[in-house]
Write a sequence for this structure.
């Protein structure tokens, strides 16, 4: 293929960072775009042109990829920019007044004024949040959470002062009996020795003794299910991949945690990064993968830093690389890929396209990832929390593991409590704990307020009412009650919350994050937002009943005919607000 | 002599289609099975010379046991599959998909869409009055949210792009079927002049940085126009004649011949109106071209009418 490039050259700074990719291929497109963005803060025509020359990619395709991600700008942008979260948990905690102040003082959101509105930054326990970024020879990022207008304005002017945020904290830190969170906030996340001193890498040793099929048997018998939202049996996924004769096999750890209200994976990666690396190694061993990709969302700088540290230390000590832990023939290594601001890339096939250097659009299934996944090869995709359960299963044994939780939902589960709740944060409880008990653990709604509703499972989940707090948090009970645990979001709304604005934010989120590939989702999410605006603002086209009908019909076609889970679930929360919370009558009155 | 690869005989798969047992060769799609049994399923992004894009969702059918509807254009038949093409759920999906498309896109030059819409009672106007055309669609930033109030229905209406003497790109008519991108890219032409850019409702077909076609990798083969299902892409000549009201498809004749420019031997179909060539295409079932041509065969015919 002959490339026709634009007649525009990069600046010297751009050329230097792009030249580091010389000799590499298409799958380095996203890392190369990040390199340019980190260096200069935006992707110029000259820079994109040079990336295309070095990686041998047609410019139109590279442009299509670069323009897919919200963290990249193809028009000039200053080196310093602050991304201010306006998503669900932040909205409940004053993001709107924060943005109003910023608009007054800095001007409307945009490249010129140095601040941008952002979807969920995944720090909902410290809302409202903002992420400051400054491009340069060493790009700097700083998480501001909880923040206020004064701080954002100061940081927008001065730039971020340091790379990291605070240490990972969970309200239950140090409480006995924790399994998934036992090290979070307790053990030094940078120290491999501390990790080993608290039982780290015992599970990998057990796995190497059990052999791949033994590990798969343990995980299957433990009845571990995926914690990313779909709850697919993990053992079955591993087994189906392990049986594929085609080589190589790949492992993808899905750390593109972007469901609004979800921040459990961030805390695991920041608080116990070695556990993520060990778990991936065990999964790779079981499913016959020689290479693992950790796809980390672009907005998690501290997790990136800690995971990089963990991987390099693990390599030094032969926990990654060739013949791991002296086990002849078992080689496995991990590459981190940073996302760049696209919720859809957490979809299990979109993540492949993103890693391969294409637009992060979901693929049509079948074929399923276990047959044809990353680079067309058999691939296991697992969520961070799912993987971190594996060492627990191998060290405690599958029988002990199945005694935690219930018959149909084994083990413990992380829940992300945020919104109007006294002690927000990630909580670990056994499956079967009731919603009410979980809320009590987090201190309930602030004193003097009444519970209005709980958004369970995220923007793709659904609402439950205050009279449903006895709902046991299990997959089967949630299903029977017509709701879902999703990714573990428990976003609490009290009587001060503005439900209409909250629903509008959910609709805006899906409109912004739709990849645009299929009609039901691309246009349906727009029509949904428009109809909801009319309903909430009481400006119907003719009657509110007609707008409700439109919403329901659009919702039905998105659910039934969209390619992937984003479109299929884009109507869930709004439907549950209309029917379960009675918002339909409220809006129509 | 042309040697035709006939391959191994294919097993037949039996499935139930709208209550009737049908047998089709293994590897066929549900759409193939429908066509074989005389059922007409509307399609837009499906192309007989392209891999299914699965994007338009007009051809969705119900398969027993599947939580969602499935695209008939790409889903392969399986033994014992129970397929319904006319259930209430399928009808509703088709109606809504056509309504959504019609509410956002100018479908005035999309063949058959009026029949399909009236057959299922689709009314695109029920989403409200159309928003005015926008000139900034090429510059939209993913994730940047446009404040709306729901009083108008967003559309992709925008100014027509005319930046060269051969093509017109009227993206207000574009339904994002991916066919032009696939024809330009690795499925046929390997020019890669265009790609899908942007995201969500702001997704669009674009050259790099929306640069004009003459500065892009475009080689003017016209193969994108050949596969465009809506008239968003058209030949300048056809576009101009449509504009001034002199395009008369009814009176046109089509004559298939062989291109004289080189030794490849491409089939050309000359569309002639008033004894004048007005368009050149190529038969999709031609084993030489599969419907594709190069700039010479597609546009180099003026000398023929140099009388």
């Amino acid at each position: 293929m002959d490339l026709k490039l634009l007649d525009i050259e990069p600046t010297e700074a751009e050329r230097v960072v792009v030249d580091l990719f010389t000799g590499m291929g298409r799958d380095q497109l996203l890392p190369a775009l990040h390199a340019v963005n980190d260096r200069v803060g935006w992707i110029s025509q000259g820079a994109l042109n040079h990336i295309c020359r070095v990686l041998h990619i047609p410019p139109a395709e590279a442009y299509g990829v670069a323009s897919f991600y919200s963290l990249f700008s193809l028009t000039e942008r200053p080196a310093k920019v602050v991304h201010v979260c306006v998503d669900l948990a932040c909205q409940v905690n004053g993001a709107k007044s924060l943005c109003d102040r910023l608009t007054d003082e800095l001007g409307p959101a945009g490249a010129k004024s140095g601040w941008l509105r952002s979807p969920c930054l995944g720090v909902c326990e410290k809302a409202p949040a903002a992420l400051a970024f400054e491009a340069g020879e060493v790009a700097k990022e700083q998480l501001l959470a909880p923040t206020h207008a004064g701080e954002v304005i100061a940081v927008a002017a001065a730039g971020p002062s340091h790379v990291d945020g605070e240490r990972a904290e969970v309200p239950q830190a140090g409480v006995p009996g924790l399994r998934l969170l036992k090290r979070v906030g307790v053990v030094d996340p940078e120290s491999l020795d501390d990790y080993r001193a608290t039982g780290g890498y015992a599970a990998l040793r057990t796995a190497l003794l059990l052999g791949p099929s033994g590990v798969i048997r343990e995980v299957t018998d433990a009845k571990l299910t995926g914690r990313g939202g779909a709850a697919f049996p993990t053992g079955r996924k591993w087994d189906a991949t392990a049986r594929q004769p085609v080589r190589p096999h790949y492992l993808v750890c899905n750390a593109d945690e972007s469901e609004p209200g979800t921040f459990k994976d961030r805390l695991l990666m920041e608080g116990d990064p070695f556990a993520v690396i060990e778990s991936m190694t065990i999964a790779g061993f079981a499913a016959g993968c020689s290479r693992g990709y950790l796809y980390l969302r672009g907005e998690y700088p501290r997790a990136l830093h800690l995971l990089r540290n963990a991987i390099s230390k693990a390599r030094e000590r032969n926990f990654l690389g060739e013949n791991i832990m002296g086990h002849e023939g078992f080689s496995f290594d991990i590459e981190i890929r940073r996302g760049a601001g696209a919720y859809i890339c957490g979809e299990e096939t979109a993540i492949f396209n993103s890693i391969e250097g294409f637009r992060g659009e979901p693929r049509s299934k079948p074929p399923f990832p276990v047959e044809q996944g990353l680079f067309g090869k058999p691939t296991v995709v697992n969520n961070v929390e799912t993987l971190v359960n594996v060492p627990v299963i191998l060290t405690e044994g599958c029988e002990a593991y199945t005694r935690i939780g219930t018959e149909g939902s084994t083990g413990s589960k992380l829940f992300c409590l945020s919104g109007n709740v006294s002690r927000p944060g990630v909580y670990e409880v056994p499956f079967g704990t009731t919603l009410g008990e979980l809320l009590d653990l987090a201190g309930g709604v602030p004193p003097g307020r009444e519970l209005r509703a709980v958004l369970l499972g995220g923007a793709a989940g659904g609402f439950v009412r205050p009279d449903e707090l006895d709902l046991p948090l299990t997959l089967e009970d949630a299903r029977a009650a017509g709701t879902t645990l999703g990714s573990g979001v428990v976003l609490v709304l009290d009587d001060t919350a503005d439900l209409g604005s909250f629903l509008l934010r959910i609709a805006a989120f899906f409109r912004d994050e739709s990849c645009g590939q299929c009609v039901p989702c691309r246009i349906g999410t727009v029509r949904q937002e428009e109809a909801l605006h009319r309903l909430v603002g009481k400006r119907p086209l003719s009657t509110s009943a007609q707008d409700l009908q439109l919403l329901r019909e659009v919702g039905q076609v998105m659910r039934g005919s969209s390619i992937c889970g984003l479109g299929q679930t884009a109507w869930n929360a709004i439907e549950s607000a209309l029917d379960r919370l009675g918002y339909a009558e409220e809006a129509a009155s | 002599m042309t040697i035709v690869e006939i391959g191994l005989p294919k097993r037949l798969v039996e499935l139930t289609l709208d209550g009737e047992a049908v047998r089709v060769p293994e590897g066929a799609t549900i759409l193939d099975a429908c066509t074989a049994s005389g059922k007409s399923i509307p399609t837009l992004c499906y192309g007989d010379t392209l891999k299914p894009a699965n994007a338009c969702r007009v051809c969705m059918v119900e398969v027993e046991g599947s939580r969602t509807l499935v695209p008939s254009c790409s889903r392969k038949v399986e033994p014992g599959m129970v397929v319904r093409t006319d259930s209430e759920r399928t009808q509703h999906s088709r109606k809504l998909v056509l309504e959504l498309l019609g509410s956002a896109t100018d479908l005035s030059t999309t063949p058959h869409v009026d029949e399909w819409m009236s057959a299922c009672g689709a009314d695109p106007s029920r989403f409200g009055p159309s928003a005015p055309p926008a000139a900034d669609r090429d510059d939209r930033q993913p994730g940047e949210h446009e404040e709306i109030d729901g009083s108008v229905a967003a559309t992709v209406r925008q100014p027509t792009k005319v930046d060269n003497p051969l093509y017109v790109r009227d993206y207000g008519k574009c339904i994002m079927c991916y066919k032009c991108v696939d024809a330009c890219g690795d499925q046929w032409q390997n020019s890669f002049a265009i790609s899908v850019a942007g995201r969500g409702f702001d997704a669009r077909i674009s050259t790099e940085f929306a640069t004009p076609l003459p500065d892009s990798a475009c080689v003017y083969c016209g193969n994108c126009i050949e596969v465009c299902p809506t008239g968003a892409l058209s030949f300048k000549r056809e576009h101009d004649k449509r504009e001034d009201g002199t395009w008369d498809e009814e009176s046109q004749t089509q004559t298939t011949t062989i291109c004289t420019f080189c030794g490849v031997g491409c089939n050309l179909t000359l569309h002639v109106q008033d004894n004048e060539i007005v368009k050149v295409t190529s038969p999709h079932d031609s084993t030489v071209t599969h419907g594709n041509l190069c700039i010479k065969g597609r546009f180099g015919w003026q000398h023929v009418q140099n009388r």
User: Anything to note?
Assistant: Chain A is about 40% helix and 15% strand. The mean pLDDT of chain A is 96. Residues 202-221 of chain A form the longest helix (20 residues). Chain A has five domains: 12-66, 80-133+140-158, 192-402, 412-494, 499-588.
